[in-house]
Amino acid sequence: AQSVAQPEDQVNVAEGNPLTVKCTYSVSGNPYLFWYVQYPNRGLQFLLKYITGDNLVKGSYGFEAEFNKSQTSFHLKKPSALVSDSALYFCAVRLAGYQKVTFGIGTKLQVIP
Amino acid sequence: GAGVSQSPRYKVAKRGQDVALRCDPISGHVSLFWYQQALGQGPEFLTYFQNEAQLDKSGLPSDRFFAERPEGSVSTLKIQRTQQEDSAVYLCASGGRGSGNTIYFGEGSWLTVV
Q1: Do B50 and A99 touch (CB under 8 A)?
Q2: Residues B39-65: what's their mean pLDDT?
Q3: Residues A22, A71: contact at Cβ < 8 Å?
Q4: Is residue B85 classed as helix, strand or coil in its secondary structure?
């Protein structure tokens, strides 16, 4: 079985401040990890993924995420938040060698001007 | 096409009516997924195809849900005798063969059962 936990329903951050959206995962093997963003009434847009290699991965729109195997975490970060970053963020996990991707329940990011 | 295309974008069905939702994946993508997203929730896996083969349908909630991809490209998700609890966004995604590949989502089909 595989699962994802996003412990915060909502994260509020002031524009220009750094942001972190938390994600922990559980999987019986090597994980592939993903972050997606969803704007209102839209589908999910891919931000970044960790497959192997460097634990710090960089993605679209200045976002990055750090894979921490010992803490089974894959937190999403951005050095300086923009109002336009306000959206719903989903973390997802896939067991290496398998196809099914399991998503968390999402975290609403609110960037305050 | 450039992205995953889904139709209709919005569907209102009367309870008991059958509905069909279409997904046109990114050209060349062998993997195709259907997810269900209820209001305020994350996407829940329904089913997965590799080409025309339905390799995993463990997430289909009942035998009223049926998916097909007969020629390994376009897929249809059919819901028979719709019920109010079927109201959700149905998301289609496609990707390459390997599990390291990213899956890309369409805009979704919003189903409301009244």
Answers
A1: yes
A2: 95
A3: no
A4: helix
